[in-house]
Design brief:
Order of helices and strands: HEHHEEEHEHHEEHHHE
Largest sheet: 3 strands, antiparallel
Number of helices: 9
Helix content: 40-55%
Strand content: 5-15%
CATH superfamily of the largest domain: MukE-like family, C-terminal domain
Structural class: alpha+beta
């Protein structure tokens, strides 16, 4: 019996055995960012097909963002005024606890310091170094064990968001991924700094308010 669906074919008319490059690139982008050092087989096709990829996702109200310098690409929702149509949000916004927001802000600032003072390509921090970043803001009644457990919980959340990447073969070494710079800009940091000052001054309500970042839990590789 003849199939009613014709299989995709290449330029010569032969049937393809799998999805084409465009499909593979778009599928990965919907799963999460493409990293040059992680998705080596997709990075070159992404650059070659970037206009077609951008046109493909634009019909869903999404914009393709590519950072050639740091080697990553991701999808984000169109902002107000970027399109003629108000699309339903496809890329979720994630509510963050105050402590998670604080750690993200501290990591973003540490990355900024690293970029201005180091010639290394990657910022890698140990679990203890991340704990030390938060220690100065931690409640005074936390001992070292409770502090480490608290930070571990929020580090796991940041790993899920894709801003930290646990190094393979290590249990306590994390790379601060540069895609963090795309999601945490100066305005976000400024607004969070205002809340942090209120928290330090004793305004407990400031600590209870969460933040939002646009992104997908699949931002991890």
């Amino acid at each position: 019996m003849t199939s009613l669906v014709n299989p995709p074919s290449d330029a010569s008319g032969g049937a393809l055995n799998g999805p084409d490059e465009l499909s593979l690139v778009v599928i990965q982008l919907f799963k999460g960012p493409i990293y040059r050092e992680v998705h080596e087989k997709l990075w070159e096709p992404l650059g070659r097909l970037r206009r077609r990829v951008a046109d493909h996702v634009a019909v869903l109200g999404l914009r393709l963002e590519i950072d050639e310098t740091d080697g990553f690409a991701y999808l984000r929702s169109l902002r107000d005024g970027e399109g003629d149509i108000d699309y339903p949000r496809l890329v979720a916004r994630h509510s963050l606890s105050f402590t998670t927001s604080l750690l993200i802000a501290l990591l973003r600032k540490r990355l900024l310091e690293f970029d201005t003072s180091s010639t290394e390509a990657r910022l890698v921090l140990s679990r203890d170094q991340i704990v030390d970043l938060y220690r100065v803001y931690a409640p005074s009644d936390l001992d070292d064990i409770k502090l480490a457990r608290l930070v571990d919980n929020h580090v796991n959340r940041i790993v899920e968001l894709g801003f930290l990447h646990k190094l393979r073969g290590s249990s306590d070494q994390f790379e601060v991924r540069r895609i963090l710079r795309a999601f945490v800009d100066g305005q976000w940091l400024s607004q969070f700094d205002e809340r942090l000052e209120a928290y330090i001054a004793g305004d407990g309500a400031a600590r209870g308010r969460g933040d939002e970042l646009e992104g997908d839990d699949a931002t991890r590789a």
